[in-house]
Automatic annotation (TrEMBL):
It comes from Opuntia streptacantha. This is Beta-adaptin appendage C-terminal subdomain domain-containing protein. It comes from the Eukaryota. Belongs to the adaptor complexes large subunit family. One of its GO terms (cellular component) is clathrin adaptor complex. Keywords: Membrane, Protein transport, Transport. GO terms for biological process: intracellular protein transport; vesicle-mediated transport. Residues 310-402 form the Beta-adaptin appendage C-terminal subdomain domain.
Length: 404
């Protein structure tokens, strides 16, 4: 697409001088400049002529303030516009605007300190006294940074930036899930899973690779039962996105274990808005036998008959690309959280024994990874008599002794 034509059209919208059009256009220009910073000179020349008094919509005002801070050296009146906005701090209802105002004033101070010093002092004082916790915390953080070292504060608040390549709303669901799994970490700051910004030497004993098919458990691939390629099938079942184990008992050629009955359709096994399926005690207890991890089981429900056994293909086949494609497309059919005995947690210190045990029941590991206390395993299994497959994600927390 023609970025030049897009910029020209956006600037024409600004020249219409209609408040609602100006508001929406400012938000779009901010995003455009984050992705195409080379167009800043063309945009800032027009944006600088807009009166902040005519911009009332919070997101638009935040976008304008962002540009005042980001391009303060190119906008002659930037310090004075920011100062006038700070003077009206008490009348500003949007916490988002006040947060942007703090950051923009800091950036402007680093570029034009004599003109911004007074405004920055007023902004920090107002922010520290602000009733909104996020605004208060950011103002206090900036104040302490400046107290510690102005050069370090500049590196933190206004580091060299790279153009944005992907916006959050276009980020894949898989990446967002991985970031959420690593919530209490720098993944949230960088908006990337840790494997995308961490050196391999620092990923711990379980390197969770970019490709699901790359096993990284410290043992050669020769020790793992090989898997071949299989095509996608409409009857494939996605068992969950946070451990979904089916119940099991071993067979000889095909492996049998108890599971909820499936009618062969492509819909989910369990609807999330309906009553959960009550399984027989044999189905729950069989999880212990299948995994060999001593899961505790609830008291048996005497009246429920056991579902018919499901035979699995001992030579199930799937490649990583097919696994990833199915994982994104298929609905969740079952999700469980199960307690684990301490001896089961101790057994996970040698994960290869777990993987070989699962392969003995025709359940294959296609990828694994994680660091203590959270370890993640991706398994797949295939029916013995038809090409339907089960995709399973197992997350083990060794500190809480639970598996999801």
């Amino acid at each position: 697409y023609d970025v030049n034509a897009i910029v020209d059209r956006l600037l024409q919208f600004l020249e219409m001088e209609k408040d609602h059009v100006t508001a929406e256009t400012l938000v779009l220009i901010k995003d455009l400049l984050r992705k195409y910073p080379q167009w800043s000179q063309d945009c800032i020349a027009v944006v600088g002529s807009i009166s902040s008094k005519n911009v009332q919509e919070p997101k638009a005002k935040a976008a304008l303030i962002w540009m005042l801070g980001e391009y303060a050296q190119d906008m002659a009146d930037a310090p004075y516009i920011l100062e006038s906005l700070i003077d009206n701090w008490e009348e500003e209802d949007s916490a988002e605007v006040r947060l942007h105002l703090l950051t923009a004033t800091m950036k402007c101070f680093f570029r034009r300190p004599p003109e911004t010093q007074k405004a920055l002092g007023e902004a920090l004082a107002a922010g520290i006294a602000d009733f909104h916790q996020d605004v208060h915390d950011r103002a206090l953080f900036y104040y302490r940074l400046l107290q510690h070292n102005i050069s370090i504060a500049e590196r933190v608040v206004n580091p060299p930036k790279q153009a944005v390549s992907v916006f959050a709303d276009t980020q894949s669901g898989e990446i967002k899930d991985r970031i959420f799994d690593e919530f209490n970490s720098l993944s949230v700051v960088y908006q990337k899973p840790s494997y995308m910004f961490t050196d391999k030497d620092h990923r711990g004993p379980f390197e969770f690779s970019d490709e699901l098919g790359n096993l990284s458990i410290g043992e050669s691939a020769d020790s793992v039962v090989p898997v071949q390629v299989v095509g996608a099938n409409d009857k494939d079942l996605l068992l969950s996105t946070s451990e979904k184990e089916e119940s099991g008992a071993s067979g000889n050629n095909g492996v049998a274990y108890s599971t909820p009955v499936h009618d062969g359709s492509s819909g989910p096994l369990v609807a999330l808005d309906t009553q959960p399926v009550v399984q027989a005690p044999q189905a729950t207890m069989a999880i212990d036998d299948l995994l060999g991890l001593s899961f505790s089981a609830p008291a048996p429900a005497a009246s429920q008959p056991a579902p018919p056994p499901l035979k699995l293909n001992a030579k199930a086949v799937m490649d990583p690309g097919t696994f990833q494609q199915k994982w994104r497309q298929l609905p969740i059919s079952l999700s469980q959280e199960l307690p684990m005995a301490p001896q089961a947690i101790a057994a996970l210190t040698t994960p290869q024994s777990l993987l070989r045990h699962m392969q003995g029941y025709a359940i294959h590991c296609i990828a694994s990874g994680g660091q203590a206390p959270n370890f993640k395993y991706f398994f797949f299994a295939q029916k013995a008599e038809e090409p339907s497959t089960f995709l399973v994600e197992c997350i083990v927390n060794t500190s809480s002794c639970k598996a999801q």
